[in-house]
Amino acid sequence: MSASDLAIVAALVFAWGMLSARLERFDVTAPITFVLAGLLLTHGPLAPLGFMPSHELVKSLAEVTLVLVLFSDASRVGLRDLRADVGLCLRLLGIGLPLTIALGTLLALALFTGMNIWLALLIGAALAPTDAALGAGLMVNQAVPARIRRLINVESGLNDGIATPFVLVAVAGAAAAEQTASAGPGEAVVELAAGLLIGVAVGGAGGFLVNAARRRGWAEGSFAGSAVLALAVCAYACALALHGNGFIAAFAGGLAFGATGGQRSERLVPFVEETGALVSLLVWLAFGAVAVVPAFESLTWQTVLYAVLSLTVIRMAPVAVALAGERLGRAAIAFVGWFGPRGLASVVFALIALEDIGQPVAGSAVSVIAFTVLLSVVAHGVTADPLARRYGPRLGPAAGGIDDAGIPQPPERRLIRRAS
């Protein structure tokens, strides 16, 4: 990145920081702002400025963001968040998520002629994770029962890590099928297993040490947050050094860190999230610069249809199946099903696939992912506040009659981390 590019990016981040509250009153979120900025800087009136992120920079940003997102999301979801509604969470993650991936994969195979199973799986898995922060208005609206907000928040915090192995196996399979990489899906599975073990070891040991150091007063408060950030990077780097998968190591490391670190370590996680928030802005900017125009250039009716179905049937039908018999009521189930925005994780998966497989092979799949995310950013961004205000109060009895009293609120860090 040149000095002029750095100046542009810094100015954009500063401007968003100054105007974010004002813009969000009009449902203009950070993803919308930075995607539009990336588009204008590369294909609009600001193109003469010469801004164009390199492929190496885009891949590095995507990888760093995914590591921070996976670690912070996993470390934030503790047992106390799951205890009250562990059955609902397990149903969404253990039934709803696999069904979403399977349905998305089958629909991609049916709609896109000539697409192989690996690219179809890439589309289905990359678009399965949800991003609660794109519905920021819903997540902080007290009219929506805390149980519903917590359920959406916990699902969003864990499903990106669970979907990651499917995405990585799909990328490896697509690369091997096109002979663009020597490692196939079998090697990818071995790397995933190694990453899981390494992440648990590093994160668990780190959480124990952080808890012990904080309890004894050994750790300086102003530097303890940096230690947790370093731990996330350490889990990722250790896995790479030992031929494991770094992303799974980051997710497993976050889970282990949250389990062994206790409340003392939980207070340090926002430092990781705030760092991730800054990097995520750059990812949205890169997404607007490198993915939006190709997505529209290759736009077909099949892509539009898939995007619409992805945000509705592919998401909402599995949620309905997963939550059947839980007495939440049809309105609450529909509410949870609709608020499954596709956001940062899907963008990062698309950018990683684009860089690892290449535009000629991955272009069609990335275009589908990109258009679906764009549609979601707009649709969920503008409907979060109105639907939360209109239908939120009607969900209380159906959601089990549980109000905010005594229920942990969905942490605002997700809204900060995803910069929405």
Short characterization:
The protein is mostly helical.
What does this structure look like?
This protein has 420 residues and is an all-alpha fold. It has a single domain (3-417), classed as Na+/H+ antiporter like fold. 76% of the residues lie in helices and 0% in strands. The protein has 19 helices and no strands. The model is unreliable at 401-420 (pLDDT under 50).
The N- to C-terminal Cα distance equals 25 Å
Main sheet overview: none
Radius of gyration: 20 Å
What overall geometry do the principal axes of the alpha carbons give? globular
Under CATH, the topology is which?
A: Na+/H+ antiporter like fold
Q: What is the SS-derived class?
A: mainly alpha
Q: What low-confidence regions span 5 or more consecutive residues with pLDDT below 50? A: 401-420
The CATH architecture name reads Up-down Bundle
Name of the top-level CATH class: Mainly Alpha
Approximate strand percentage:
under 5%
Helix and strand succession?
HHHHHHHHHHHHHHHHHHH
Mean pLDDT: 81
How many helical elements?
19
Report the helical percentage. over 70%
Number of domains: 1
Number of strands: 0
What characteristics describe this protein?
19 helices, 76% helix, 420 residues, Na+/H+ antiporter like fold, mainly alpha
Question: Could you give the topology of this structure?
Answer:
Elements: H1 3-24, H2 30-43, H3 55-76, H4 79-83, H5 86-111, H6 117-126, H7 136-139, H8 146-177, H9 185-216, H10 221-241, H11 246-266, H12 269-290, H13 292-297, H14 301-311, H15 313-322, H16 330-338, H17 344-357, H18 359-391, H19 413-417
